[in-house]
Design brief:
The structure is a single chain. The chain is α/β, with parallel strands linked by helices. The chain folds into two domains: 6-151, Response regulator (Rossmann fold, 3-Layer(aba) Sandwich); 163-226, Orthogonal Bundle (Arc Repressor Mutant, subunit A), CATH 1.10.10.10. The protein has helices at residues 27-38, 52-62, 78-88, 102-112, 123-135, 143-153, 169-179, 184-191, 195-209, 214-228; strands spanning 6-7, 12-13, 18-23, 43-49, 66-69, 94-98, 117-119. The strands form two sheets. A five-stranded parallel β-sheet has the order 4-3-5-6-7, with helices on both faces. It has a two-stranded antiparallel sheet with strand order 1-2. β3, α1 (27-38) and β4 form a beta-alpha-beta unit. The longest helix has 15 residues, at 195-209. The mean pLDDT is 87.
Length: 231
């Protein structure tokens, strides 16, 4: 555990420096985030990881005060990494920093164990305040996401709805891979499940989305992936 640093001016110990672990598969992004964090008093980057496997291993070894996680990782979805961290290292504080739309992934991330969700486009302005809020025991979400969650609690917005919001985390993962053109057997390999299970997920997705057949599902998935990428 980090020890408080003495304050030469007052002769009193300062508050312990908070250690952050960055999990993102883009080295340039990690470098930029690290510079942003290291410029702030009381915060430091104790480690970096480019994959879910590496992030889980480093989180267990370094015991950071906060793990900042991207959802798109080369070996596993960031939501699954969140769940793994909470299962293996209960109580570890996690903050999701992602390019993915918070209206789809924000509440999913919180349910998976994150204490906050921030869009990458807002990182320069809000990452530090988000990290400090989570480190102090709070939950950080954007104003718009907070409003949507409050509307759900007060009953002003119905839960459930239609479209991708009705899909489970795993079904959403399968839909994304379908949209990226990944074959069923390869989806099974990436997710460490059987091809039969993938087909079951496809059937559930079609039912929830109201899609009639496999070709229509592929079209829907491709259009959805392209819309998220801003194509």
């Amino acid at each position: 555990m980090p020890r408080p640093r003495p304050d030469p001016a007052k002769g009193q110990p300062q508050e312990a420096v908070k250690r952050l672990l960055l999990v993102d598969d883009h080295p340039i992004m990690r470098h930029g985030l690290a510079q942003l964090i290291r410029a702030e008093p009381g915060l430091e980057v104790c480690g970096e990881a480019g994959s879910a496997r590496e992030g889980l291993e480093i989180a267990g070894r370094l015991k950071p005060d906060l793990v900042v996680i991207d959802l798109t990782l080369p070996d596993k979805n960031g939501l699954e990494l969140l769940k793994d961290i909470q299962a293996q290292y209960p109580g570890t504080l996690c903050l999701v920093l992602s390019m993915h739309d918070e209206t789809i992934y924000g509440e999913r991330a919180l349910r998976a164990g994150a204490r906050g969700y921030i869009m990458k486009e807002a990182a320069a302005d809000h990452l530090i305040s988000a990290a400090r809020k989570v480190l102090s025991g709070g939950i950080y979400v954007s104003d718009s996401m907070a409003s949507r969650m409050l509307e759900q609690v007060t009953g002003r917005r119905a839960r459930g709805g239609a479209g991708v919001e009705t899909l489970s985390d795993r079904e959403l993962e399968v839909l994304e891979m379908i949209g990226l053109g990944v074959a069923t057997k390869n989806i099974a390999g990436r997710l460490c499940i059987s091809a039969r299970t993938v087909e079951a997920h496809r059937a559930h997705i079609k039912e929830k989305l109201g899609v009639g057949d496999g070709a229509a599902l592929v079209r829907y998935a491709v259009q959805w992936v392209e819309s998220r990428a801003g194509v």
